[in-house]
Amino acid sequence: SLFRSICFNGYISYYVFILSLALPLVSLAVSLPGMLTMRVRLFLQEEEGVFARTRKGQALPLRLEAKTPWPLPSGRVRLRLSVENTLTGGHRQEQLVLAVGGKPLVLERSLASSACGLVACSLSKVRACDLLGLVALPVRMKGRGRCGAFFFPAVYAPVLSVRADHAPDSEGERYSQAKPGDDLTELFGLRAYRPGDKLSRVHWKLSQKAGGTLVKEPSLPLADCLLFLLDLNGQGLEADVLLDIFATLSGFLLQQGAAHRVGYREGRGLAFLELAGPEDARPALEAVLSAGGQAALPALGEGDLPRGISHILYLCCTPDPGRVQQVRQLCPRARFTGFCTGSAGGLGFTEVAAGKVVEALNGLEL
After folding, report:
1. Where in 193-247 does DSSP place strands (E)?
2. Contact in structure between 131 and 75 (CB atoms under 8 Å)
3. Which of 16, 94, 176, 223 could disulfide-pair with 81, CB 3.0 to 4.6 Å?
4. Rounded-to-integer distance, Cα 353 and Cα 340, Å
5. Distance between CA 266 and CA 291 in Å, rounded?
6. Crossing angle of helices 281-290/236-255, nearest 10°?
């Protein structure tokens, strides 16, 4: 009969051969809808485009999610995870394979950095494979294949002091260009009226012209100008020590109410930020860390440095005699204090080794 002919044991090898040819097609047919609808994202926080923030040495949860609306098994997702510290240049890669079924799969990794910096995480070579792993298709990321975290420098507590001529003084002749204060003798700017504003600060004439109530904002006096110059001209781990020094000294000055500025390389030029209150510390550190490291300050010319500088704190990896002379000539009357992580080369810099920041800063007068 036909049934006996089909079940003849001499045909088993043919059946196995036909099944082996059909199995890849069956695997692809089952997996293909899931492969085409596969979505992968990498995130530290749920808000897109928001950087996570923590201190160096601490860990953050780095999450990798793969999902598809296809209810049947969708095979595996192969990808490469890259993690790079843009300040130190430290870089590592990890190959991952995720088995995705009908439910979303979330893989969590611990993201930590022993050095400060902006740590950028990214996915590349993301491929969705069928159940047998014979066919692979690229997966679209839709902008969620990257995320990052700021690892801020350590802030120590050495014994420091501030000179009397650097303390805030309401009689100062210079004023902040970045934020308002409480000196009514100098106008910082105008803004719209807010409930609770004093009527005595309303600018009535301009309010009539503008068609809305405008309030005068007083200025913030700066009795002195202390300037940090960050010359990150060495290896990344050396820059980490220098930023520990900056964060420690800047944090102390802000606690004392002493405004100051920081200059650092941004692109091909020199950028300056003003720190007048504790709320300015985090944005300033983020700006410096975002600029990256291992880049010396550009050549300085007349007018490149702010006016009224009375004290320069020059932080560098290896002092460059020509650059140091440039800075001293541009501000001949300013006090000069230098810190470096390499050899001072007889330029009067204080050499600071990793783990010795407190000892190097103890007794410093700003």
Report:
1. 214-222, 225-231
2. yes
3. 94
4. 9
5. 6
6. 160
52 touches 44 (CB < 8 A)? yes
The three-class DSSP label of residue 49 is: coil
- The answer to whether the pTM exceeds 0.85 is no
Please answer whether residues 206 and 153 qualify as being in contact, where contact means their C-beta atoms are separated by less than 8 angstroms.
no
- Taking alpha carbons only, the member of 176, 180, 177, 198 closest to residue 190 is 180
**Whole-angstrom Cα distance, residue 253 to residue 284?**
14
* 96 neighbors 81 (Cβ within 8 angstroms): yes
**Sequence letter at residue 91:** H
pLDDT in tens, 175-207: 566 666 665 556 667 778 788 777 777 777 777
Are the CB atoms for 131 and 34 separated by under 8 Å? no
Token pair belonging to 10 = 């001499």
pLDDT in tens, 4-58: 666 666 667 776 777 777 888 888 888 888 888 888 888 887 666 678 999 999 9
Under a CB-based contact definition with an 8 Å cutoff, are residues 213 and 207 in contact?
yes
Tokens for 102? 């009908």
